[in-house]
């Protein structure tokens, strides 16, 4: 089963930005005024290429065959059995091969999110003689215990670790890691730079 994890905040903000850019491009084309319009288009193109590379493209994908880490300009595929260790700090760091490290761009955990997770994991204080919090169902209690003290990045790191260990228990052969360039991000930047050159030359 394929599971994709990304920063929801960055993803939503990126789509809001794309709608804003689309409206501005239509306005600039309709009211084209020479070099000023070209400069505005070039600025929008550069910012949009960066937003695409940093906010829309990054994702952590768990497939049946292995882990796919999509970073701004590279995609790394790691078969589950090739993963040696998984550590989580600000980002998820996956060790493989000859002490190589894949740093996943998403999900990340901020200091604020980690502090919130630690507060959530602390035992609830009961005030007075009577409990004021509603009683949780067994399912809610199990979910609360599973996420106690953990950020989203910690949870995804656990999923990666569990799948890697399961593949090794099945004595699955570790295939080679594959790293490829992100041609879509590079193409977006090339188009943006072409517009910058056109704006300067015009």
Automatic annotation (TrEMBL):
Name assigned to this protein: PH domain-containing protein
Keywords of the record: Membrane, Transmembrane, Transmembrane helix
Domain Low molecular weight protein antigen 6 PH: 57-90
InterPro entries assigned to the protein according to its UniProt record, in alphabetical order: CFP-6_PH
Residue ranges crossing the lipid bilayer per the database entry: 12-30, 36-55, 179-201
Chain positions covered by the region annotation Disordered: 115-136
One Pfam match: bPH_6
Superkingdom of the source species: Bacteria
Biased composition (Low complexity): 120-131
């Amino acid at each position: 089963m394929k599971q994709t994890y990304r920063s929801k905040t960055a993803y939503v903000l990126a789509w809001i930005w794309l709608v804003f850019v689309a409206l501005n491009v239509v306005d600039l084309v309709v009211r084209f005024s020479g070099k000023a319009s070209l400069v505005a288009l070039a600025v929008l193109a550069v910012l949009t290429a960066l937003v695409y590379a940093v906010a829309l493209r990054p994702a952590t994908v768990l497939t049946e065959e292995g882990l796919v880490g999509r970073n701004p300009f590279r995609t790394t595929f790691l078969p589950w059995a090739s993963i040696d260790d998984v550590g989580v700090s600000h980002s998820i760091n996956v060790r493989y091969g000859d002490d190589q490290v894949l740093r996943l761009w998403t999900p990340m955990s901020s200091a604020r999110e980690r502090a919130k997770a630690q507060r959530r994991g602390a035992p609830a204080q009961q005030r007075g003689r009577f409990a004021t919090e509603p009683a949780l169902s067994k399912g809610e209690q199990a979910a609360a215990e599973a996420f106690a003290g953990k950020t989203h990045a910690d949870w995804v790191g656990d999923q990666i670790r569990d799948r890697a260990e399961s593949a090794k228990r099945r004595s699955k052969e570790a295939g080679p890691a594959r790293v490829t360039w992100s041609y879509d991000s590079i193409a977006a930047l090339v188009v943006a730079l072409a517009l910058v050159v056109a704006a300067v030359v015009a």
